[in-house]
Amino acid sequence: MSETMSPSKDNDAVPENVTAVENKPLAVPHKEPLFNSKTAQIPEGMSKSAWKKQQKALAWESQKPDFCNARREKRKVLKAARRERKLASQTGEEVVSPAPDSPASATPRTPFELNRLNTRVIVDCGFDDLMTETERTSLASQVVRCYSENKKGPNAVNLTISSLNKKLLTRFNTNMRQLHLQWKNVEILERDFTLPTDPSELANWVYLSSDSPNTLDILEEGKTYIVGGIVDKGRYVDLCKSKAEKLGIQTAKLPINDYIALAGRKVLTTNHVFELLLKWFEVGNWKSAFEMVLPARKILTKKTNCDNNNVTASETPKTGLSTNVPVEAFAAENPIDTSST
Fold it and tell me: Which residues does the annotated region (Disordered) include (predicted)?
């Protein structure tokens, strides 16, 4: 389980004369496991898998204080090492370098000014009820990644996180210790996004969906692009497309098949879609954006790019079948309220 924790702010004394720090795993005191699935009495009505998950969560909560204390001590040692190296470099003394893979060896980030684009990107998290707890955990990490990538530059968009509510918000407020409340230059909405009333402004809104018949050839400043914030492994067909059509928003898909062939599921994560938008504004080329953002294991075949947008088409290999859930079932139980838009 990966948790996002805020830096320690205590003023405890730190070790002196620290010259090097190795990037070793945190030394958390060993504790006996809290459960044994072979001998334990599983409550009636609970599956073995669900019981294991519950016990693992309890085990983590019991060891969390020890883990946090070990990490706090490690941070103090790293901070002391960096302070000593800085002092030694100023006085001309010999500096003992830390291990290459140590966090203490990281090069400080050079400050730079972001080029803030006149483009808005909305991450629509209004599908909380359709995800499992594991998928919801994954989405929370992807949302954090979107915010992080938007700060790294060289370009930044006007980022909005909408419908951050229900169990997803609970995770941010508990496990992630309200990390989102510290974010800057981002709009966070617990409700759904609000549509413009002017039809000419609405024409500049595009909801990205892999099920759309339209292809997004270029990105334009002054437009609003909506990315569906859901982790579903491709279970739901036409989910984002149907929501966009009911709201009167035009849809489009990324030109993936024109440039690359994806291995496995033809589904991109929320943060990958967001990073692709940022990368296109940086390089102005979809092929380069795909190759720079997507992991190598995801790209099965690189298609030849000739004369700018003229590409040699190749058939995308078929993948295993997946269970598709009709979107009508979700729409019937969760009607979209357009009165506030």
Answer: 83-110
Residue among 152, 155, 226 nearest 194 (CA): 226
Please tell me which residue in 12, 192, 211, 232 is annotated as part of the active site.
Answer: 232
Question: Nearest 5 degrees, angle CA 49-CA 52-CA 56?
Answer: 140
- Spell out a b/e string for 61-73, using b for 16 or more CB atoms within 10 Å of the CB, else e: eeeeeebeeeeeb
Listed residue (158, 259, 268, 160) closest to 215, CA to CA: 259
* Model pLDDT for residues 16-48, shown as the tens digit of each residue: 444 444 455 555 444 555 566 677 788 888 888
Domain ranges in the chain are 1-108, 115-333
Give per-residue pLDDT as tens, 105-114: 555 555 567 8
CB contact at 8 A, 224 and 206: yes
Other CB atoms within a 10 A radius of the CB of residue 190 amount to 12
Range 141-146 contact pairs with CB under 8 angstroms and sequence separation of 24 or more: 141/2, 142/229, 142/231, 142/269, 142/270, 142/271, 143/229, 143/270, 143/271, 144/4, 144/176, 144/179, 145/271, 145/274, 145/275, 146/270, 146/271, 146/274, 146/275
State pTM to two decimals: 0.68
Known catalytic residue at 232? yes
**Two structure tokens written together for 116:** 């803030």
Q: What distance in Å separates the CA atoms of residue 251 and residue 78, rounded to the nearest whole number?
A: 49
DSSP 284: S
Spans of the chain below 50 pLDDT = 1-22, 28-30, 305-331, 338-341
| Separation of alpha carbons 59 and 54, rounded Å | 9
For β-strands 250-252 and 205-208, DSSP reports them as parallel
Q: How far is CA 77 from CA 80, 100, 107, 137, 190, in A?
A: 5, 16, 17, 31, 40
Confidence at residue 61, expressed as pLDDT on a 0 to 100 scale? 86
Residue 273, token pair as written in the block: 């879609």
C-alpha distance from residue 303 to each of 78, 265, 286 (Å): 46, 18, 12
Residue 12 and residue 76 in contact, taking contact as beta carbons nearer than 8 Å: yes
User: Is 260 within 8 Å of 290 (Cβ atoms)?
Assistant: yes
Picking from 224, 210, 289, 310, the residue whose alpha carbon sits closest to that of residue 254 is 210
